[in-house]
Automatic annotation (TrEMBL):
Keywords: Membrane, NAD, Transmembrane, Transmembrane helix. The keyword Plastid does not apply. The chain crosses the membrane at residues 6-25. The lineage of its organism: Bacteria, Pseudomonadati, Pseudomonadota, Alphaproteobacteria, Acetobacterales. InterPro entries: Epimerase_deHydtase, NAD(P)-bd_dom_sf. This is NAD-dependent epimerase/dehydratase family protein. It comes from the Bacteria.
């Protein structure tokens, strides 16, 4: 019997999708990647990630939009041997969802239904894993956040789309029975990261000597999670499906809630340059503080993060210096 895993991976040109694809290809899985390579942030960075993945013969890529269910079904028709789906594509970023809410609904809600519709007719599918977000905890203030907490108070349309995905998955698990796992990622950072995220923008500002824009809010903190820890968590979820009909949800966090100012100080230390702080009010889309309870995921999957924020930021800073111009723009090297 052929035991090779064949994985459909959406969002493969993105930060987390790229790292996961690299890991899966290195261990011998086949990866069928999907991404619309949109211009929400620097497309050169997405193309540079894809260029690395294309070096593997076990990688197939479709540039398609998940909102177009017919185009996705047609692309996936020849792939009847799929064993796993990891669905990471989404319009990410909480603040941008204030400006473009419809784009979030199309990519995140219709896109999720598209992948579930494909999944339910795949004969050999063993597991469907998808990205949710810590933002579903919204305006909750009881820390750490637990998977059993009520999550009815999103503070952005982005968060609401992620919660909608979890509920739609619950319905599909009930109706069709294939195992699903939703992963609530907490502020993921690392090399090949996302230029719209704060740590990346802070690095650009520190290196170019321009002001680091911080939000002025007492107690502003994030539970930062290093990319390698996220990948080991996604892989643990993928390789250990729940019972048929189960729609599991796990937090994946770094277990290191850190005031943003302390993170900036650590990053400046790693980059060897001072940070010049400038303050502005906290946008309504942003929550004050996040921290993942890891009790559930460590009990069921035996997963815990391993990378300290200092070590993770050091690895990010080394990559950042190698791949960016002095004004902070991404530089393609190969
Ligand atoms: N990075 C984090 O801190 C974080 C935190 C919580 C949740 N998440 C979730 O994890 C997943 C991956 O995030 P990321 O940080 O890698 O983001 P990313 O933006 O780098 O990757 C997402 C990818 O999805 C693609 N995409 C978007 N809409 C699409 C569509 N309609 N059709 C096809 N492709 C589409 C984009 O082009 C992009 O390459 C997302 O679902 C995101 O919401 C990320």
């Amino acid at each position: 019997m052929n035991s090779q895993r064949v994985v459909i991976l959406t969002g493969v040109a993105g930060f987390i999708g790229f790292h996961l694809a690299r890991f899966l290809l290195a261990r011998g899985d086949r990866v069928i990647g999907i991404d619309n390579v949109n211009d929400y942030y620097d497309v050169t960075l997405k193309e540079a990630r894809l260029a690395q993945l294309r070096r593997s013969k076990a990688f197939t890529f479709y540039q398609r939009d998940l909102a177009d269910i017919a185009a996705i079904s047609t692309a996936l028709k020849p792939h009847q041997d799929v064993t796993h789906i990891v669905h990471l594509a989404a319009q990410a970023g909480v603040r941008h969802s204030l400006a473009a809410p419809a784009r979030y609904v199309a990519s995140n809600v219709q896109g999720h239904v598209t992948m579930l519709e494909c999944a339910r007719v795949m004969p050999g599918l063993q597991n469907f894993v998808y990205a949710s977000s810590s933002s579903v905890y919204g305006l909750n203030t009881d820390l750490p956040f637990r998977e059993t907490d009520a999550v009815n108070r999103p503070s952005s349309v982005y968060a609401a789309t992620k919660r909608a995905d979890e509920l739609i998955s619950e319905a599909y698990a009930h109706l069709y029975g294939f195992p699903q796992t939703g992963l609530r990622f907490f502020t993921v950072y690392g090399p090949w990261g996302r230029p719209d995220m704060a740590y990346y923008r802070f690095a650009q500002a520190i290196l170019s000597g321009t002001p680091v824009q911080l939000y002025e809010a007492e107690g502003l903190a994030r539970d930062f999670t290093f990319i390698d820890d996220i990948i080991s968590g996604v892989v643990a979820a993928m390789d250990h499906p729940g019972e048929p009909g189960a729609a599991r949800i796990f937090n994946l966090g770094g277990d290191q809630p850190t005031p943003i100012r302390d993170m900036v100080a650590l990053l400046a230390e790693c980059l060897g340059k001072p940070a010049h702080i400038s303050l502005s009010p906290l946008p309504k889309t942003d929550v004050l503080s996040t921290w993942a309870s890891l009790d559930h995921v460590s009990e069921v999957l035996g997963w815990r993060p391993k990378t300290s924020l200092k070590d993770g930021l050091g690895i990010f800073a080394t990559w950042f210096e190698e791949y960016h111009e002095s004004d902070g723009a991404f530089r393609k090297t190969q």
